[in-house]
Request: fold
Amino acid sequence: MPDETAPSGSVWQARQVYGMAVVCLLVGLAIGYLFRGSQSSVPPVPQASVTRPAAIAGAMGQLPGLEQMKLMADKKAEPLLAKLKSDPNNSGLLLQVGNIYKATHQFKDAIGYYDRALKADSKNILARNEMASCLYYTGDVDGALAQLEQSIKDDPKNADALFNLGVIKFDAKKDAKGAVAAWQQLLKSNPELDSHKKAEVRKAIAGASKG
Reply:
């Protein structure tokens, strides 16, 4: 449950995330995770280096508030931020910092670092896809779609961008036809996908087609 004492923007932000979880259950997919990293040479932040809210919840018996997660993110980001002082335009480092803030639901902070990563390297598609997810979580649907469309323009086969484009069209725009088209394009342009991922996309197509 979101912390009712937190600023209204933070509470709304948390509610958006939880609402998205419901959508993911409906289509059988989770935005930004099924295909992450498959189309980029920039390594994501190692799993062990990010304290995930779910892991914290299991240890503490409850989900920490956004302010607590912000403190954890700041702590985790310290070594990378120190490196950025001497290399401020390192797109890979900026991406990793953004990933830390995204993992702890500090989406506006994450957007800032992804934006810097893209200014340093406009072809950093992984950063652009992650930024799109964060924009969506903060309520900027059109901004998220614009970023994903740019990713697809730069890399028409990008599975992550096509997948997320379908999720956002299905949920936010109520555009089942557009979602199905994106997912069908994903399958057509990525025949090398493993059977599990193909099955998940087909499941999403079937779910959206019923609507």
DSSP finds ten helices and no strands in the chain.
